[in-house]
Request: fold
Amino acid sequence: MNTQLKKTIIALALIAAPVFAASCSGREKPQGPPMVFVSIPPQKFFVDRIAGDRAQTRILIAPGQSPHTYTPTPRQIADLSRASVYFTIGIPFEDQIAKKAAAQNRLLRIEDMGRGVERAAAVEHDHEHEHDHGHHEEHGELDPHIWMSPRNAVTMAENTAAVLSALDPANKEAYEKNKQSLIADLRALDQKLSAMFEPFKGRRFYVYHPAFGYFAQAYGLEQIAVETGGKEPSARTLDALIRQARTDGVRVIFVQPQFSKKSADRVAREIGGVVIPLDGLAEDYIANMEIMAREIVKGFSR
Reply:
């Protein structure tokens, strides 16, 4: 068990006891629009597009926070104990939070927004022993960044609408209509990105954190990560990565704002390149996917 997960479990134990003691497993169903919890901002986009003002959507991880260092606040735990549904997405911290909340609120539904999505194994790039593009799988670990492919987002929209309709059958028709509108937009986005990347199939792009696996798979690209497993690369690994980047003719390293730029800055300096921010956790999903795609295409042209 990693250190951050231990901290999260301890925080939950300390926070949840006094908060959940005030609640009871047989609590009455709250009145008004149901409170819906999600883990990350892109999930809120899906819920809001489908539910509109028929739900109160709350995010656990605020903009700018990293899921890898997240610890819940007392207010979040208290609100979750009154929620109607919590949409998970496969991030490690979710299990402990969901178990604690479900144990104290029998009406809370824990739903996997990504149910039915084919999840890929997390991939680590071994720059020190480069063979066949130098990657191997971290067995037992799955890549949680499923929202990074618009094709997966269609499945997430379907799941969201189904859960909301079951929770609030009186508004099922509205949820279905909004879902169809969202899916049409997601498919249009997918077509646009497919056309953008068609000339660049097979190309590599370099990122700090390996969050773009599903994105790369969808559009025939390959991501090369600076860090893997949440660990800063060693000096030896960085040197190997720099050599590989020079061979690939790369001039851009993409970094998510939730992570340190230190290692990416060094790689960029050594290859005569630049560091460009890409935020896969931005809430405005469709607009953000287009922004990131344009930046990656520009990177290929440098």
The first strand starts at residue 35 and ends at 38. The CA atoms of residues 141 and 179 lie 31 Å apart. The first helix runs from residue 3 to 21. The chain has two domains: 3-118+147-187, 121-143+196-300.
